[in-house]
Amino acid sequence: FHILARIFQQQYSELDRPVQESVGEFTNIIYCMIKANLNNNGYRYQMALPSVVIGDQHKVFNAGGGQALV
Question: Which residues 6+ apart lie within 8 Å of 23 measured at CB?
Answer without folding.
Answer: 52
